């Protein structure tokens, strides 16, 4: 008997249970039937799945667009400035060893898991948690964190546009000193003549960034944040116009843009690499970047840094990968894509490090500085102080290399921001399907622009640093652990592997199973514990925040993490059971319509689940069976 005939016979012989679930807020208004297998497992068939499944979800025009979009999302600003600086302060070449290990044990397995979930369900990150409704708050928290990251990421893009425009000047504005900067200013231009009596000077590149661009105060105690700078506001507006334009036509327009956003930065990187390695002193900088300090391998902070860098470099556990994969063809073999993307991301980080430290090596050579770490500014300072300072030392065509560098940063940032903004927009679209996509894109851009104005104030970098830590790093780590527990133990690694076999017709190796169930959540939990035990009040440039800002930071964190218990209670309340225990058990089970979105695939999936329930018996205890069953 073929699958279709068996399914029709199965439906004729089932008693349709409408009863108490009809019209109940937790039932999705679906008529469902329940089968109890020989091992007592409850299998639910949604007899009206066709009505929901008949709605077509957008798909990539070509499968390769998913690959390029994920590359554009994952390869971003963190690769260009965060990775080189993190590697430098954590042992140079020795940092690469924990980094590669973390890639294999956390980064790649979690990336593959999220892509599988999105492709299998054809749902955005919120509805993907129909697999474990009680944990749906994870997705809401991730969307909240992603929205926060989108706003401050656009702020960095605005600064990039500001520098890009300045790079077209006849004389680069960060190469000379202004009178108002005082006598301690040291001009960084290649032909600049400075007062040799200045012992502890400040480079004109640093003063240009802090005084001319940011107008940054020493602290927030006296004048607060201040008012937005009009030139930065215009740059922020330009950023959101670009993002809104690409988002306006949905996944197809962003898919087309991904070809450029993913590939073009590498063209510039190759040009910059060739230029970097031909500079005097460049190889000393590259060796400094890659030279191992083996004693650092025993430092737990190095492993903490490797995990957090991998976490944010690949953009895992933010909801964006689930969203992108939901537009894939159901049977697309994504295993190769995941290997390619994660490998390219890591190699790009190393490539960017060689470029950056080759140029910084030249800067150390030109300034007669033996310790290269003394010419490095971390974070945004690496992109907007150290690198412009190094470009200023170029004797030939410094404007050209400034334009290339900042245009590369802009393209990298736009590619990542498109992915994050798309995740937020598609969550709203999945809930309000009648709204046109262009309207949602415009609305998100306007809201993002208005929220971003706070970063355009003189104290904006203080706020950015606060939101980055409390609203992204801290929230994302907690929710990532919860996500892995939800998928690996509530839904179950065993069932994930069964879904993969149904979708791709491949068996899942023990490597993936063990990483999903034990290694990845275990290592992330250790990182969280280390983070809590080593926690110190957040500072910016060594300056502490006023108490009210710390309070605001914890409120931002609380709003994200408390999504988990809030939606868990809501989901339990919505279940049709009569006791709390029965409601709780139902909230732990996948919803009635969980499975492939397409009708025929869904029917075949129900038969697949029934066969497994009839013919597969548990092996050992739950722990063993969940991983190896």
UniProtKB/TrEMBL annotation:
Q: What is its main location?
A: membrane
The cysteines joined by S-S bonds are 177-185
Membrane topology qualifier: Multi-pass membrane protein
The record's listing under CDD domains reads: SLC6sbd (cd10324)
SUPFAM superfamilies, alphabetically?
SNF-like
Membrane-spanning ranges: 66-84, 96-117, 138-165, 229-247, 259-283, 303-326, 338-360, 400-425, 437-456, 468-490, 510-533, 548-573
In UniProt terms, what function does this protein have?
Unusual broad substrate spectrum amino acid:sodium cotransporter that promotes absorption of the D isomers of essential amino acids. Neutral amino acids are the preferred substrates, especially methionine and phenylalanine.
Question: What is this protein's record name?
Answer: Transporter
Gene transcribed to yield this protein: LOC117137524
